[in-house]
Each structure stands twice: as C-alpha cells, then as structure tokens.
Amino acid sequence: MQTLSRGADLKILFFLLGTFFFGYNLARGFDLNFEILYLPILIFGIYVWRKYQNEIALPKTLKVWFYILFFYWTFTVISSFTHWPLGSTAWANLNIAHNVFIFMLLGIAIYVLKPSVDFFWAFMGLAGVAVISLFVMEVHAVGGLDALERGIRLGSVYLHPVKMGVFANGVFIILMGSLPWAFRKGWSFFSIWIILVSLVFLAIVFSQTRQAWIGWPEALIAWSVYYVYYFRDTLNIRPYKVVIAIFALILLIAATLTVTPAKKLFVDRVNLAFNNVSEYLDRQTFRSSVGERLISYEGGVRGIVDYPWFGVGSDQFREKQSYYTAQVAKEEFSIDFSGLDYRHMHNQYLMSWFTYGVFVFVMVLFMLGFLLVVFTKGIANATTENKAFWVAGFVFTVASILVFVPDSPLVRSDTSAHFLLFSTLLLSFALQHKHQNEPYKSN
C-alpha cells in the first residue's frame, strides 16, 4: 500500500487543526460534541508516529513538556482515586485529563512533519475566520450591535461570553506578530489580513470578557519590542521611528474605540470590576460577579488548609464550596447564606489545589513556569525571522497565567483543549524551526 507524501500529511494536519479549532468554538451553535474530533487526531498521531518513527528525534525541551503533562495526568488520577468510589463528575474530569496524551501525539506530529511558516500563519488566519464566524453569528442572533448597549454580551447565544473572549484573545495576541509575513504577500492580501485581525479584536471587546482584556498590555509591550528589533534588523529603520509608529497605532485603536459602542462597554466593565472589589474588601457585599469570585477564593483557602494533600475531590467540590463560602459569608459579612454552588472556583490555581491537592497544583505551576522560561529564553536566542514564534508563545503563556487567576480553564473540555492546543502548537513549531536552517515548504 502506497503511503501519503509528507505534503499530503501536512494538509491532513492543517485540516485537523482547523477543524478542531472550529469545533470547540462553534460546536454549541450546531449542537455537536467537538470531543469526537479527538478520535481522528489520535488516529493521525499514531499514523505519523508509525510512519516517521525512524526520523523522530525529539528535542529535550519537548520531552520535558511531555513529562510535565504526564505527571499532571498521573497526580490527577492518583488524587481522584483517593476519593473512591468515583461519581460522574470525577469520571468526566478524568476524561478531560486523559486528553493530554492526544496533545502529546499532536506535538510530535507537528515537530516531525515540519510545517512551514506559511502553514503556521495560515492556520492562525483560519482560527481568525472561526472567531469572526462566531462574532457574526452572535451579532445576528442578538439583533445587531445596538443590542450591546442594552447589556447583552456577545457569546451568550452560541458559546459563552468568557469562552468567546478568551478564545478570540488567544488568536489575536498571536496574530499581532503576523504583520510582516502578511505584508510580504502583497498589499491586497495585507489589507484583508488587517481587516481580519481588527474583527478578531472587536470580538474580544464585545464579549466584555475582562480576563481576556488583561492579556493585552503585556502582549502589546512584547510585540512592540519585537517590531523595534525586527525593523531595525531587516529594514535598518531607526528604533525611535518604530516606537512613534507603534504609539500612533495605539492612539488609532483608542480613537476607534471612542467612536464605537465598545467605549461604553469597556469603561463600564472596568469600573464595575473596581467597584465590586472595593465593596467586597469593605465587607459591604459579595453579591457581584467579582465579589462571588473573591468569596470563593476565601472559601477555597479554608478548604485547602483542611485538605492540603489530595483535596476534597471532584465529586465533593460543590458541596465543600458551598460549605466554606457559607462559612465566610457568616463570619465576615454576618449574612446567612447557603453558599456558592458553581462547577468551578474561577481560579485554576486554587481550583487545582482545592480539588486535587498540592501535587496537581504544583504541576499546574510547572506547566506555566516551564513554558514561560522556554519561550523567554527562545526569544533571546532565535533569529530575527523566527523570533515571532517565540514571542507568540511568550504572550500566550503570560495571557494564560493571567487567565488562570479569574477562571479555571483546565476543568472544562473546550477551554482545556484551547490551552493545550496552542501551548503545544507554539512550542513544537518554535522548536522545529529552531532545529532547522530552512523550514520544509508545504504547498
């Protein structure tokens, strides 16, 4: 039986990556379960492993990433079984943890098949199209952008506002580094690309997701520094001119926001967050979006003190969350309260420790810390042409570190998939370009 060429394998990889991203973004809108897409990725990963097994020589860095994922899975399983017998919630969470092995295979496939720079940015463009598709569907469903002034958040119909904002932001902060590549494709392509990036940005704004917005400052700083060095090294443009151009772009974005419905949304959401924090710290009330997060954190810390090693377990999470938050409400606010009853704690760090114990918590820190160190070192050592991929990995990691504070991505199948997909994609792609002088060119 004749095997497929490497070029054909790359096309299959591109199709699987694109379908997977579309899947967890749009599955709810079409009443589909995106997790069925893990099966073709698993089959393809095994196929690549078997076909190219004589060529597989993974770098140490990628192996360490796989070891971290493996030990995260191991401690999650061990901790879960200390709370035997397991209920439906525990089994569902274990199924999410099992998916790390599929992302390991995907990382190997990306590294071995050596996708080109065009492959990478084309995939990011396709991801942008997925975000824009959801954006358009949401705007149509709520009756136009005027509905936003009535307090409707985009993402409420076909996904979830927070997920829409976080997914779109992950794409946007990476696409910020794509402009030199797009410019080399010609003015027409570059113009379309700018429109695509701008629409992805608006999707984030109109989702009104504050945990996505907190990823902007560091991304803007990192990419600004990148462009200063890029234009200095490639076009011999003086750095101060690049700084002026970047500052002008920031002013243009700010001016654009002031003449759109985004201005009021942005200002109102930021002010509301500060007011909620102030009310909570003054012990006035915890009845707000931010306030409920803060009381869950206080309750979580109390639970961690009582169950430090293996946590309370997935099946007991909601019961214990209600118990400890009711305790905080009574003691700190003098309010009789039955307690919060949410699926997660809106903080991945506390959620991991509270539910699974200190060992899983440490592995979450290792995940993010490892990525941060690797991408930071990679930026310093990469060539000017390849530096963008390391910066992309850096800004995505920093954004993830920040998102893990007000959210718990690893306890949901789609948000967990988003984090693992992009962290593995960025790491594998950056490493394979580091270890070859001329990337393999796909059609």
Could you give a short description of this structure?
By secondary structure, this protein is mainly alpha-helical. The chain is 72% helix and 0% strand.
What labels would you give this structure?
443 residues, mainly alpha, 2 domains, 0% strand, disordered C terminus
Low-pLDDT parts are 437-443
What is the oligomer described by this structure? single chain
Helix/strand order: HHHHHHHHHHHHHHHHHHH
Task: Give the tally of β-strands.
Answer: 0
Proportion in β-strands: under 5%
> Biggest sheet, in brief?
none
Radius of gyration: 22 Å
Helix count from the secondary structure assignment: 19
The shape is globular
Percent helix: over 70%
| Arithmetic mean of pLDDT | 88
Q: What is the CA-CA span between the terminal residues? A: 24 Å
Domain tally: 2
Secondary structure class reads mainly alpha
Fold topology:
Blueprint: H1 6-26, H2 38-51, H3 60-81, H4 88-98, H5 100-113, H6 117-142, H7 161-175, H8 179-183, H9 187-207, H10 210-213, H11 216-234, H12 239-258, H13 262-281, H14 289-306, H15 317-333, H16 348-356, H17 358-381, H18 387-403, H19 413-434
Helix pairs in contact: 1-2, 1-6, 2-5, 3-4, 3-5, 3-17, 5-19, 6-7, 6-9, 7-9, 7-18, 11-12, 11-18, 13-14, 14-15, 14-16, 16-17, 17-18, 18-19
3D structure, described in words:
The chain folds into two domains: 6-266 and 357-434, no CATH class; 283-355, no CATH class. α6 (117-142) packs antiparallel against α7 (161-175) and α16 (348-356) runs antiparallel to α17 (358-381). The protein has helices spanning 6-26, 38-51, 60-81, 88-98, 100-113, 117-142, 161-175, 179-183, 187-207, 210-213, 216-234, 239-258, 262-281, 289-306, 317-333, 348-356, 358-381, 387-403, 413-434. Helices cover 72% and strands 0% of the residues. The two termini are 24 Å apart. The chain has 443 residues and is mainly α. It contains 19 helices and no strands.
